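During the second year of the project, the team shifted from modelling isolated chains to modelling whole assemblies. The rationale, set out in the original proposal, was that interfaces cannot be judged from single-chain predictions alone. As a representative example for this report, we include one of the complexes processed in the last quarter. Its constituent sequences, exactly as entered into the pipeline, are reproduced here:
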Amino acid sequence: MPDETTENTVTTENTVTEVTEPASTVEALDAVGRSDSAAARAAEHVLAAVEPKVGVSKPDTILMADGVQRRFGGMTAVDVEHLEVQRGVITALIGPNGAGKTTFFNLLTGFDKPNQGTWSFEGRSLAGTSAAKMARNGMVRTFQLTKALSRLTVMQNMLLAAMDNPGENLFGSLVRPLWSGTEKRNTEKALEILSRFKLDTKKDDFAGSLSGGQRKLLEMARALMTDPTMIMLDEPMAGVNPALVQSLLHHIQALRDEGMTVLFVEHDMHAVRHISDWVVVMAEGRIVAEGPPQSVMQDQAVIDAYLGAHHDTDLGDDSLLDPAVLARLEAEEEKR
Amino acid sequence: MEELSRILTQAAGELIAPTTAAYVLAAIGLNLHFGYTGLLNMGQAGFMLLGAYGFGISTIAGAPLWLALIVALVASILFALILGMPTLKLRGDYLAIVTIAAAEIVRMLGRSSGLAEWTGGQAGLRGNEFKDTFAALSPLPDGRTAIGPFEYLNNGSDSWWVRLVGWSLVALALVFVWLLTRSPWGRLLKGVREDEDAVRALGKNVYAIKMQALILGGVFGSLGGVLYVLPRAIQPDGMARSMTFFVWTVLLLGGAATLFGPVLGAMLFWAVFMLLRAGLREGMAGTLAPTQVENIGGLVVGLALMLLVIFRPQGILGNKKELAFDAR
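Output from the structure prediction step:
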């Protein structure tokens, strides 16, 4: 009996989000830190052969950036020499505040234009492509601050995201038979996706009435309505209730398991270690390291970027008074 | 007592007046702009004046009614394109500034002596010069007809014929807007209103959607302008900034983003406005000059608009719940 009670408490914590999910999966995720789906193993296998160094070429590149620079006045916010993103895996883009992650993200998704550089998606150059065109090409994004369409219902949010609706044409919209069929199919699809995200009971509520975490889920669900091949998540965990984080991580892994490519920007290292197959680290606008999550966290450049190069130097150390030592430290700093 | 009933009849007459119908059309256009799409058009009077000029000038030049109407509509479409192309890619406030300035430009051009040959300059175009083609279409017999307390000429300027056409146009416009706004296209408009970046991120051409809304709303404004001048002359100074703000008041009173908001708003606005002015004229006959009455009327409208936005931003028909999530 006591055992059962404990079991129950564990489940209730996740009831909101994980009703149909057996508690064991969540626990497994916690224990191992990673899901163990076929797609996860495949991703690990493929990426194991890739050398973890900056700008390395991937066996199956879906997104490629080359010499992308974005300057704001005299400040270079993003200066990425070369980056390739492997298809069908979860790539995390991490870095300290001000590293240029979101700016780089906006460049990739067409919400901002770089000063120079080329970048391509599935082999097609993306220079001069609008954000809307990017989404139609199959690369859809979400936002750090959720952009739920507040005064539309959850269902309307979903339906709006569906592609190629003849009713979205000004003239087509006047003739209901032209779009009622599409609308019906989209509604079914939306319901299916919503139920996966446990939002189906909220379908007639205004999106503005959802909680922060639910809005994140809605944004992800909405992105799925566009049938993307690649989904870009800007800080999916930001502002999310800890109880929802686990479920959110699970959903992101599910995207990969369905064959989508995921690129996400994140601050939360815990989340990154949990779900990503490959990690790209940015600092001061550049990519300073990339590699599998287990090893990249040990990378000296990453530790330096996050904590400063001499974080372990004791500032009270008398040796710092010695000009020779100081000069050596400065030289190290220069080289970095 | 007789005075009171005359004032009340006058106010009630505003409910079905052609001017009211004209304002309904203009407010329906503004509703497409602001209520559904979130575009801040502060120059709806410009669209109306342009429609009026397009109709009047082409009729005087000898165009038949249908052609004159097309000229009026094309004028507003071009106006919307010119305003929209540079501003719709920018933030909403820019459109507000550009529209208010552009409406003034249209008015200034209309009243300038340089174009007086066509526009009649400051004096404008007299009604008799351009309303014949419209009046000739009337199937009504000559004479007067009284329905209840309302008695008007069958044909002519302030006639049953203008009312009939005006309110039929309103009915058609309502059906049209209803069809549009229940459709996925209407949903797109609302999406753009809520957050255009989100809509853009979902692969929609936000610029095109906003342009379509701007043009369509402008076309309704232009139609409203034509209807507005049919019972009167085309006078540029009579269709100035205050007209834009009257249209805004009408829309916000009835309720933005609602189908019948513009209708209810316009009827209520003009009835109350007339009641106020007629009452002041009668009641304060000795102390206030007629121009002062007009000024006080305008002042009260301004005050009402402020109170409305502060205390009941959703208007009469609007959904309070829908508005409650507005964090902006």
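Residues 200 and 206 of chain B are 6 Å apart (CA to CA). Chain B has one domain: 2-324.
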